[in-house]
Amino acid sequence: MKTIFLFSDNYPYGSGETFLANELPYLAQSVDYVRITPMWANGDKRQNAFANVKIEEPILGFNPKKKLRLFMSGVFNLSPFISVIKELRAAKAVKNHANCSIRKKLWKIFTSILLTRSILASKNFKKVVESMTSEDLCYSYWGYNTANALALMKKKNHAFPKSISRFHNSDLYHEAKGYIPFRNQLFDALDMICTISQHGADYLTGIYPQIKNKICVSRLGSGDHGIQSYSKTEEFRILTCSNIVAIKRLDLLANALKQITNKKISWTHIGGGPLKKQVLEITKSYGDNITVDFKGVMQNSDLLEFIKNSSFDVFVNTSLSEGIPVSIMEAISFGIPIIATDVGGTSEIVNQNTGLLISKDITPEQLKDIILDFSNLDDDKIQQLRTSTREEWQAHWNMDVNYRKFMETITNLN
Question: Is 236-396 in CATH node 3.40.50.2000?
């Protein structure tokens, strides 16, 4: 294989897509060249440490979330319009899997068309695609946006290289977005569909049984940064790490902790978002037994260093939707047990060896009781759980093992 053409959302700009940053060294070692093309650029550009990795110019020169700018770019160009009629038939077929009105589906189809046409009209995109050969591999890190445009290009070009895409959460589950347009055309174009969880693979084959033979499960993973130094204290130390947005439901945890008055609790959160003020407002009613420390957004390297040099009793995830959270992979790599909602593929990483899986419909009262029960585990049980948590990570979520296996799979793609 000559070159992997990798299409990202924003990487190497900003601090996101850290799992892609983890995968990149393995890609660079596996092929002659890697060419990364971000859909757009937001934030500072990270340093490229690999001589055989080239960062292309972003496809779009604007934030695709800006509706007016997207409209102007998507309408006023010469790219072909995608069949809306065909997509409406597909939308009807997945109505039971997307809690989404026809009006909302139409809007999502429309905005997806605008974005796809904007990408197709991009000079930077055309330049990269035209340089591909049949010996290369086209790899979209996300199963939408740029992937849809690549699917259209492949349909027109019989010499287009083999194509694969990962599917995580928001690009996989209709429920996460309400509805994801143009699935069939994308799946037809892909030679391999790589979900990060078995749950994701089962979900797709349940709706699109025709793609079963194209699907492979390729788990992500986290690096080995050692085991967290731990000693139990009378204070129960909770760690959370996520964007502060509605789907993550930090307000659920905040309201659960509000009901605890007879136990010392410290809650540390890493991450920012639009609902930070509302969540912190809930914490203002806490008694003196609870301390809260919202540290904001951290670079992944700083986050991992902070966790390693701190001591936490449990990592909590109360999300309504997930693929398999990388934050949980990182937490269990340090031996930190987990309390997490049973959504998406979370049950594949949270089990009796790593902690406790809870219902997504849990109430603050029920979560409060679970946290108190967890905090009252005896020393032997805690140590046993922390040991088995680390062992589970080593067996299934070590990125060195998982990414090497993935490289072998994609470089041998027939």
Answer: yes
Contact 215, 205 (CB under 8 A): yes
The CATH architecture of the domain made up of 3-221+399-411 is 3-Layer(aba) Sandwich (3.40)
Angstrom distance (rounded) from CA 399 to CA 410: 16
> What is the model's pTM?
0.84
Render pLDDT for 231-289 as a digit per residue (tens, 0 to 9): 889 999 999 999 999 999 999 999 999 999 999 999 999 999 999 999 999 999 999 99
| Domain coordinates in residue numbering, the chain | 3-221+399-411, 236-396
CB of 186 closer than 8 Å to CB of 143: yes
CA distances from 292 to 183, 184, 284, 287, 304 (A): 43, 46, 10, 11, 20
Residues ≥6 apart with Cβ < 8 Å to 37? 5, 6, 7, 8, 56, 57, 58, 59, 124, 125, 128, 146
Question: Who's near 188: CB < 8 A, 6+ residues apart?
Answer: 151, 155
CB atoms within 10 A of CB 402: 21
Structure token pair of residue 365: 């009262």
Q: How far is CA 270 from the centre of its chain?
A: 16
DSSP 38: E
Which phi and psi angles does 290 have, rounded to 5°?
-120, 130
Domain 3-221+399-411 identical in fold to domain 236-396: yes
